[in-house]
Amino acid sequence: MSTDFILVTGGAGFIGANFVLNWVAQEGARPVVLDKLTYAGNPETLASLQGDARHQLVQGDIGDAALVSRLLTEHQPRAVVNFAAESHVDRSIVSPDAFVNTNVVGTFTLLHATLDYWRVLDASARAAFRFLHVSTDEVYGTLGPDDPAFSETTPYAPNSPYAASKAASDHLVRSYFHTYGLPTLTTNCSNNYGPFQFPEKLIPLMILNALEGKPLPVYGDGLNVRDWLHVADHCTAIRRVLEAGRLGETYNIGGNAERTNLQIVQAICATLDDLRPGARPYASLVTHVPDRPGHDRRYAINATKILQELGWQPSIAAEAGLRQTVAWYLAHQAWVDGVRTGAYRQWIDQNYSARGNA
Ligand code: NAD
Ligand code: TYD
Q1: Rounded percentage of the chain residues whose pLDDT exceeds 90
Q2: CATH numbers and ranges of domains, the chain
Q3: Which of 183, 187, 151, 147 is nearest to 166 (CA)?
């Protein structure tokens, strides 16, 4: 059998596509991407791989058992890396159904089809196989200002439908290891930023709004804290866990970069003042809007386990990574134009007009 393939679900989204690009550059092995191509999935992000025989994009749903089984049988991958998910908290508040369907039922279907595939592999392929599930720190809930950062033993306490659906998927993955012996790994990481992020999330939304002279809608007092991790560091961490993670374990991945939302927005504005000066400082566009319901106050990651066991730590400092990201959006107008379709404008209207800031 070939052990040259990996199946990457959600590989046309922000982190999945960065992972695929990074994988092809570093490993030379062949990723088969399974992606439903929802509003967040974008084949353009993988355009640089077009015509490259090492990569294949299949449009389809992780909840389609027959399709998943066919892809596994056909390609005989040595790993499944599951990025596929509905990923935006605000959308999960407006329409939670898709989050339960994809993140819970879809992950279950993918897991079970993988188990059926794994069970009939020969002994050496079965021993080498990995199912890596990409999850989030949001499953742990929210922290007070002086609470210790989330570790792998922090109890789950998800607060949004998005976080609850990811928590459910993590539990299913855990159960497939303990019950059936499927060789699983789970990573829980903090907020990612970097190239190719869909501009519904804080950092690209603020960059693009600022460039258009639109208000920069900061929820509530803007003092919610997130830990920020550059997507390239996240991809390196996933590769390291895939390579050497202990089976059935979870690994927290963080950027050692806790910042308030206002600090992030101000840093974006200062970078734009420098790289693309306007008539007025961009920070004059900051507008406080009504808060997100159930808005978690603080996330922080204790990434000691992955450092001690696997020797991984982030390499991109937040300020440098943020500046590089702002510069990336300035230099990739065609990609930006491509993702800001009618559906995108409809979401922006829906989310921000309710806050009086369309
Ligand atoms: P994204 O929304 O940019 O991409 C998700 C991808 O999954 C899209 O390409 C979409 O088309 C695809 N998809 C959605 N439903 C699918 C289905 N049913 N079948 C197949 N494909 C489907 O998300 P992202 O930011 O790249 O996040 C990737 C993963 O990382 C998610 O599991 C998310 O929970 C997790 N994560 C993200 C962050 C972050 O800051 N972005 C942080 C921690 C964890
Ligand atoms: P987001 O990028 O949606 O990630 P998450 O909710 O998964 O952490 O939001 C990051 C932070 O930025 C979060 O505290 C909510 C806040 N935020 C705003 O203040 N304004 C916005 O328009 C958006 C999208 C987010």
Answers
A1: 90
A2: 5-197+230-256+300-316 (3.40.50.720)
A3: 187
Look up residue 35 and give its two tokens: 């992606």
- Four-residue CA torsion sign, 213, 219, 223, 225: negative
CB 339 within 8 A of CB 198: yes
**Ligand 1 atom closest to residue 84's alpha carbon, by position in its atom list:** 7
**Enclosing H/E stretch for 69:** helix 65-75
Q: Cβ-count burial of 282 within 10 angstroms (0-12 exposed, 13-18 middle, 19+ buried)?
A: buried
356 by Cβ neighbours in 10 Å (0-12 / 13-18 / 19+) ranks as exposed
Under 8 Å between Cβ of 306 and 237 = yes
Q: Does residue 220 surpass a pLDDT of 80? A: yes
Contacts of 46 (CB under 8 A, 6+ apart): 11, 12, 17, 20, 21, 33, 55, 57
Ligand nearest to the CA of 108: 1
Neighbours of 166 (CB within 10 A): 29
What is the rounded CA–CA span in Å between residue 17 and residue 45? 7
Whether 180 is catalytic is no
Q: What is the mean pLDDT of residues 292-312?
A: 98
Q: Pull the structure tokens for residue 30.
A: 């062949």
CA–CA distance, 195 with 203 (Å, rounded to integer): 11
Alpha-carbon distance of 299 to 306, in angstroms, equals 18
- Of 2 and 355, the structure prediction assigns the larger pLDDT to 355
Ligand 2 centroid–CA 296 distance in Å is 10
What is the DSSP code string of 290-305? PPPTT---B--B--HH
337 is catalytic: no
Distance from the alpha carbon of residue 86 to the mean position of ligand 1, in angstroms: 6
